[in-house]
C-alpha cells in the first residue's frame, strides 16, 4: 500500500496552505477529499474541496462503514471516505489527509504506518490573526475554533513530526523534506 500522510493541527494554522504548496512540489502526491456536513464557503466546490453531505447522508455512510475515520468538529461532521483513500493507495499513489486531531488519533490506530505531522502555530495570537485574516468564518466560529485549538495544541507531542508554521516558505520546505524522506525514493 502506498504511503499515507496525515497533516493535523488547529484550524487556521495553515494546513491547507502548506498542503497546496506541498502538492505542487511533490509529484504524484494527491489529497484525499473529505466529506463534511458544513456549508460550502464561497468558491468551494462539491467534490473538489469537500464532498458536501446532509446529516442524513453522512450518517448513512457512517452506518455503512464508509469512513476510515470521522469526527465532530465545531458542531459539524467531517470524515475520510475509505473510497477516496483506497482508490489512490491501491494504485500506488501516496495520499495526504488534512484532518483534525480526533481523526488523526483514529488513523493512528487503524493505519499505524501512516506518517503523522502536527502543524504548530508560532503563537496563539498568530493563530487568531490568521483565522480572522482568512475572513471565512463568523466571529462566533473563530472563537469556537480557537477554543478547540487550545485543546488540540496539548496533543502536539503525540505526533511523530511537528512543524512550526511561522515563515511559510520555511515550513513548506520542512514539510517537503519530511514527505520526501518517507517516500520510497526518499
Ligand atoms: N477528522 C477529520 N477532520 C477533517 C476532515 N476534513 C477536514 N477536517 C478538519 O476539520 C476542521 C475544520 O475544517 P474546515 O471547516 O474546512 O475549516 P479549516 O480547515 O479551518 O479551513 C479542520 O481542522 C480540518 O482539518 C476529515 O475528513 N476528517
Ligand atoms: N506561515 C504563514 N504566515 C502567515 N499567514 C499564513 C501562514 N500560513 C497560512 N497563513 C494564512 O493563514 C490563514 C489560515 O490558513 P489555512 O491554510 O486556511 O489554515 P487551515 O487549513 O489550517 O485552517 C490563511 O489566510 C493563510 O493564508
UniProtKB/TrEMBL annotation:
Localization in the cell: Cytoplasm
Domain Guanylate kinase-like, first and last residues per copy: 2-180
Catalytic activity: GMP + ATP = GDP + ADP
Entry similarity comment: Belongs to the guanylate kinase family.
PANTHER family in UniProt: GUANYLATE KINASE (PTHR23117:SF13), GUANYLATE KINASE-RELATED (PTHR23117)
Function of the protein: Essential for recycling GMP and indirectly, cGMP.
Designated name of the protein: Guanylate kinase
Organism per entry: Conexibacter woesei (strain DSM 14684 / CCUG 47730 / CIP 108061 / JCM 11494 / NBRC 100937 / ID131577)
Amino acid at each position: 500500500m502506498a504511503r499515507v500522510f496525515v497533516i493535523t493541527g488547529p484550524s487556521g494554522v495553515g494546513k491547507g496552505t502548506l498542503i497546496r504548496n506541498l502538492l505542487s512540489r511533490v509529484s504524484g502526491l494527491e489529497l484525499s477529499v473529505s466529506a463534511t456536513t458544513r456549508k460550502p464557503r464561497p468558491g468551494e466546490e462539491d467534490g473538489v474541496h469537500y464532498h458536501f453531505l446532509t446529516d442524513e447522508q453522512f450518517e448513512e455512510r457512517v452506518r455503512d462503514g464508509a469512513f476510515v475515520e470521522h469526527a465532530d468538529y465545531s458542531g459539524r461532521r467531517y470524515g475520510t471516505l475509505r473510497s477516496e483513500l483506497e482508490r489512490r493507495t491501491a494504485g500506488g499513489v501516496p495520499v495526504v489527509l488534512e484532518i483534525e486531531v480526533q481523526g488523526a488519533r483514529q488513523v493512528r490506530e487503524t493505519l499505524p504506518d501512516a506518517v503523522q505531522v502536527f502543524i504548530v502555530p508560532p503563537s496563539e495570537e498568530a493563530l487568531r490573526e490568521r483565522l480572522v485574516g482568512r475572513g471565512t468564518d463568523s466571529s462566533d466560529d473563530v472563537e469556537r475554533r480557537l477554543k478547540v485549538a487550545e485543546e488540540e495544541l496539548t496533543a502536539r507531542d503525540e505526533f511523530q513530526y511537528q512543524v512550526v508554521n511561522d515563515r511559510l516558505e520555511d515550513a513548506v520546505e520542512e514539510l517537503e523534506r519530511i514527505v520526501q524522506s518517507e517516500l520510497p525514493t526518499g
